[in-house]
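Here we describe the complex-level prediction in full. Unlike the single-chain runs in Section 2.1, the two entities below were treated as one system.
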Amino acid sequence: QVHLVQSGAEVKKPGSSVKVSCKASGGTFNIYGISWVRQAPGQGLEWMGEVIPIFGTTNYAQRFQGRVTINADGSTGTAYMEMRSLRSEDTAVYYCSRFLFAGSAMGGPGPLDYWGQGTLVTVSS
Amino acid sequence: DIQMTQSPSSLSASVGDRVTITCRASQDISDYLAWYQQKPGKVPNLLIYTASILTSGVPSRFSGSGSGTEFTLTISSLQPEDVATYYCQDYNSGPRTFGQGTKVDIK
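The structure predicted for the assembly as a whole is:
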């Protein structure tokens, strides 16, 4: 049984940083990538970026490039998303999710098949 | 970057109605198209991938079709438990863009 368990809710001040973790269990971490998706209150899903842990490679949506860092620790099966220079518009639920990357041992590219429970990040002064 | 455009943005239909949602990609994405269902207050759930393959456990009233730039999600007989927002996503490469979502409720 695959589980992605995210760290708990955060309340941050504008201008500060937040780091959200996502621990995977029940699957083979090295054949999957981890994407981060956010959802502002009442809004749609927004893809932020991804990491392929076995290679350490990352890919970001242009609007987050330079302000977000996504990485992973293969030894613990944990991925991380750090966002800097937070502003009120970053208030959202942040999700991690798993996908088969292109060329993985199981084929791919694949969709986001398992999701974490979400982490609410509130940015407020 | 590829843009994904869904229509309509919302719809209201009666129980038993056939419902169709369209997703258009700004460039050819072959069949690397997924549909997700997000019920109110819940985590998104993968419904369909490779444009037309149902995830295990998804009721057969759901179907997907299309390739290239135009895709559809069809619910053949709308049920109360289908009230949700549905998102398409291009998952081929580069930014894995989502459509803006289609909110489905019961009339």
